[in-house]
Amino acid sequence: MGCVESKKIIENVTNSDIKTVYHIEDAFFEKEVKCELRVTEAANLAEKIKLDRQINKNNKYKTKYDARILAKYDVLALIGKGTFSMVARVENKQTKQPYAIKIIESEEGREAFEVELAILRRVKCPYIVQLIEVFESVDKIYMVMELATGGDLFDKVQSRGPFSEKEAVNVLKMVLEGVKYLHNLGITHRNLKPDNLLYYHPGSDSKLMITDFGLAHSRRSADDILMQTICGTPEYVAPEMVARQPYTNAVDLWAVGVITYILLRGDFPFFDEDRIRLYKKILRGKYSLSDEVWVEVSENGRDFVRQALQVDPTLRLTAVEALRHQWILATHQSPKRKQVCRSESSGGGGESWSRRSSAHSSRSLRSSHSSRSGPSSSTRRPPSARVLPHHLESLEGALSMHGTPGIPPTPLLHHPCSTRHPPHSSWER
């Protein structure tokens, strides 16, 4: 089939035979370099297309990255893209170890990630995804990070339903070790949730790592313990933040309480499509531990949830107290390998890329495969999930008119949302 010409082979093609039609320096995986091949009359269309594809393949990444990156890493695939950043999977050319590279391109993006990068450079803990190295150019920042391939905790709960107490404690042990380490360094995460907890690999023995420090706060001095910025994901924010009062790192332990509830129940302790009603529920600390699912949970397990979800932050568990809780000590089995968290001063550095896609926003937490997935008042995420000041202002008006039991008597303070963090990574799910 075909004519004689179609079977001829292109020989002795030189660089002068190849002409660049157009070249886009800063495009990232959206448009490739387009080339046109000029050869002798012996050429045929099939060979022309074949060579053109090979040229495009070889040039696909080289025009998008700093030469220092390409000298050390092979760029394999785009695995995430946001408003100010993109994430690619790469492989070290010498060790063949896979990593993730987070690229921050715009000036606005640089400002947004200043705090995150400063924190990533400080920490080294097995339960926090590590920052490997950083490259900076005139228009970009490249953050090379440990690659987590096992998915996030949200995916795990959604796919399999509620965890057993033993499984939940194994998860919480790792999370609490990471939180304790951060708090010892004066760092408050402020956006802990299953979406920001990644499994290192898909295996059942994988460690779990905290990611996404876009909203984290680093204490400037020993006395600088209060924060005021309204931020986070609505279903996980603590009552003191909803009340717009100065708050401490106890907000992270409230989030741990919510995560614990989700692990054991497969659903949220506080949920409502209407944000005002949701925040009222959080302020009241009103949730249920009495349905048929909780009957299967031990009293120690239920007590842990109660102490983590204390509306009064001064009565709430700290990370150290949580690790010493009877439920954690009685149920948890230590990891196979003893891991030690180290600060920068002991030879470490680093943390993670990761932010979860807003595609989670409409997914169900409950699994139809779980025998423990009892009735739920909230089976889906809201389509938009960020803490917005005007919602809390409306809440303040509603409370002043009708009053709400359990609200702290101090005046509600107004602290506008920080604009330093991009909506794609931390403000939204």
From TrEMBL:
<feature type="binding site">
    <location>
        <position position="102"/>
    </location>
    <ligand>
        <name>ATP</name>
    </ligand>
</feature>
<protein>
    <recommendedName>
        <fullName>Protein kinase domain-containing protein</fullName>
    </recommendedName>
</protein>
<dbReference type="Pfam" id="PF00069">
    <property type="entry name" value="Pkinase"/>
</dbReference>
<keyword id="KW-0547">Nucleotide-binding</keyword>
<feature type="region of interest" description="Disordered">
    <location>
        <begin position="338"/>
        <end position="386"/>
    </location>
</feature>
<dbReference type="GO" id="GO:0004672">
    <property type="term" value="F:protein kinase activity"/>
</dbReference>
<dbReference type="InterPro" id="IPR011009">
    <property type="entry name" value="Kinase-like_dom_sf"/>
</dbReference>
<feature type="domain" description="Protein kinase">
    <location>
        <begin position="73"/>
        <end position="328"/>
    </location>
</feature>
<keyword id="KW-0067">ATP-binding</keyword>
<dbReference type="InterPro" id="IPR000719">
    <property type="entry name" value="Prot_kinase_dom"/>
</dbReference>
<feature type="compositionally biased region" description="Low complexity">
    <location>
        <begin position="355"/>
        <end position="386"/>
    </location>
</feature>
<dbReference type="GO" id="GO:0005524">
    <property type="term" value="F:ATP binding"/>
</dbReference>
<feature type="region of interest" description="Disordered">
    <location>
        <begin position="399"/>
        <end position="429"/>
    </location>
</feature>
<dbReference type="InterPro" id="IPR017441">
    <property type="entry name" value="Protein_kinase_ATP_BS"/>
</dbReference>
